């Protein structure tokens, strides 16, 4: 993949956004990458994509985020994008209990299709709708602990905790990657700078070995 | 060489005027010239302009977006006449053209001084962008075609392919989709029966308590309810409660009656052109100012029924586009990739080298039939061509989308993987007028004529 000389970063991390339809995945993404929010945004068809480069633990990280359609019918299409992802943001809507109940189904999706070491963060979105809240923070917290997930509540509309959510998952990915490269003797992640292939989207079918995939 | 080329193209055009594209004689003559024409297309794409008559120069206003003023695009205008049926024909014989408001603002028109005032006043308030569809001769042809006891659908397809005058759209679309029968004696009766049948369906499936629905049905209804408020949200008309309720009834009833696919996100988009067209029989002016509150419930129900049946007819031809894993769409995306490779090798190679999969951008195009990619006011014109294609639509979509994609051939070759994904997700079509769309369609038609009759050229 061609790299522009003016685009410097130490790491490129692929992250997927998953969760039921209408929980606010696309708005979390647009809030994080463009600082925008759209009350009536269109449903995502298939997969959409955005990036943002930011500092994580003193390193420049380019986050490449794949936003997926929430409807079950699209899983055959979207699950292809899980491979090579280092992180997954699993979103539910704090005002819609069914979207929280379905978190377990999404976890199964990840287990079936994503790399085993993928970092998963559960996000309860739409905390701005206080009077409509139907999923208690404590319930979600204990579920997250039980499943070994990080957890945070956000409001994409009010821009609360969105930055923190992405920062947290990217830091976690960074720690795992840097630890792994020390212990396994694999090429140091800094080599990414030299233009090695990083798995993104469908190029994952290529035979080149990804250098910062968790697999 | 170049002159020969021109002659060939003109001959080719003339034949296309008089033969529907499946006519064997057309096919054989195209076959014999295939290599020549292929070179023409390649030349066209590489920037070697083929001299030809510039017949369609009714350009609206200066385009704001630099990317659609790319050399490819400008050049392509000279070929606007080469593709679609009737284009050249119409442009040559019609001196008396009604022109729309928007065109009057333009500087580069053919016949602004002889505009047909009557037609103009009738048309502009409904669709200020439509140019050719309002040409008086075309209107006459449509009127004539629609007034016969049994409409000749093939003829109507040929006419409709190049755009239907807005106020005739409801009638023409019903006919083209096979919802209204060609026989005018039977038409009213059939529509009445179908509309009642829809009412029954709504009563039977939609107007029931949730306790009578299965879990899957409840889920589906919930999904539809999530999607209705975010259907074409940039057109405020669709934000009206009553409109969203209609949308919900149509979608749910359709989904229940088509269990193999059920509701799939994006089908909500596909109802909107029908809603706008069938409502246009009752509402005037700009869509954004429409209000359905003054339309009687009976009429709303008729409109819904028409939308429901037309959606059904449209999707009958693409059943496997929305079933599990959407194999129909995957197949067409593959065909699109192959066609683009045939037509524009450099851009195809670039896309491949960058690791961009066609599925990553073209999936949505097929799933929503391009509604998401162009301004909404152009969608009905695009659908005139879709519906005129009839059963051949799925395959023709491949040509339209190839043509659409290659509008930005040069631009794409300058982008890396990420830039391409982002660019293709938000294509700069906001300022598109009819001309840009006509260009896409004309080129699609031209390529279809050349490639489709020579399938071996598409084999890998």
TrEMBL record, chain A:
Q: Identify its membrane topology class.
A: Lipid-anchor
In terms of InterPro entries, this protein maps to: P-loop_NTPase, Rab_GTPases_membrane_traffic, Small_GTP-bd, Small_GTPase
- Molecular functions per Gene Ontology: GTP binding; GTPase activity
What keywords are assigned to this protein? GTP-binding, Lipoprotein, Membrane, Nucleotide-binding, Prenylation, Protein transport, Transport
Localization per record: Endomembrane system
Q: Which family does it belong to?
A: Belongs to the small GTPase superfamily. Rab family.
Protein name listed in UniProt: Ras-related protein RABA2a
TrEMBL record, chain B:
Q: What sequence ranges are listed for the domain Rab-GAP TBC?
A: 163-390
Biased segments, Polar residues type: 1-10, 67-81, 105-119
Report the superkingdom from the record: Eukaryota
List the biased-composition ranges (Basic and acidic residues): 11-22, 82-104
Q: Which PANTHER family does this chain map to? A: LD44506P, TBC1 DOMAIN FAMILY MEMBER GTPASE-ACTIVATING PROTEIN
Q: What is this protein called?
A: Rab-GAP TBC domain-containing protein
**Region: Disordered, residue numbers:** 1-30, 61-138
* Single GO MF descriptor: GTPase activator activity
